[in-house]
Design a protein that fits this description.
Layout (H helix, E strand, L loop, with lengths): L1 E10 L5 E15 L7 H16 L3 E5 L3 H7 L3 E5 L2 E6 L1 H5 L2 H6 L4
Parallel strand pairs: 2-3
Antiparallel strand pairs: 1-2, 4-5
Amino acid sequence: MAAVGHAVRRRAADGGHRPRIDGPPRTLLLDEPSVGIAPRLKRMIFDSIQRITSDGTAVLLVEQDATSALRIADRVYVLEHGRTVREGRPQELAGEEYIRQVYLGV
């Protein structure tokens, strides 16, 4: 997980630089935050992501749990073998038969 915001370089103890975030991040990158998480905690994570986005932070979410991702996303890109095979609004994609069978198990 990484936050991208107004990074300010600060000298670290080892002489290198280490970024410091000043203010809330503008973009949050999340790579499969629900992997290996209990269902109750997963709901809490996705609720937190929704709150973060409602505060104006953009979130780029990589997630295999399509149901949870579709619930909170504004825009969805479906990747298969490194290629975008579908893209659109969550409501549109959730209605596609292919998405329902392959990703939602319906």
